[in-house]
Give the backbone structure.
Amino acid sequence: MDFDQPPVVRISAGAHRLAEDAWPMTIPAVTQLMSEGLTLDKGVTFLVGENGSGKSTIVEGIAVAFGLSPEGGTPFGRHTTRATESPLSGALHLQRGIGTGRWGFFLRAETMHGWYTYFDTHGGPRDPDFHAMSHGESFLSVLEHRFDSPGFYCLDEPEAALSFSSTLALIATLQRVVADGGQVLCATHSPVLAALPGARLLEVGEWGLREAVWEDLELVWHWRRYLETPQAYLRHLRDE
């Protein structure tokens, strides 16, 4: 029996079925997840794709199925503003690693302000005042104070609040988390973040989910071309 397993070994369809003609089953990546399942490696797995591709929906569904708050945070306390999460989590079955715990954290850019407010009341006296920091500084402080032990860490487009140098700091944090035995699932459209050494890349799009290498990502191709010849893109905006 293998006891050296990550917190989440595999995600597959559970007993509850979603309507095939309704969202989120109309998203190709979600349909593939439900029909084929997904084995998660140790370390970092990135879901890389455009807005609307389903990467955030999948990360959210897996995070909530694990027991994390849909609006961000840990399994041990949650805040709620307005329920907008998809029903995907209730249709998933998670195979958990043998001997692994329940600790984790869900960091999602769009709801962290609400979590900071919740934490003002429920945090400890030595915890930082996240509201007193800039958006990027608060993200890095959460990474420092909450990504501090082996567990399952889900991130939804964390680069939204980070500068280039801060994104590099995030890469260093994720490397530390993995070295300490943590597992990371992250939705991103940052070519900088996706270049993390040793990460598994799943490209998300109209095809569903597919394994990829950094050099072949559509995201990387477009960023390279834009930085080399921005007018190749901007002239189309002017013409429109």
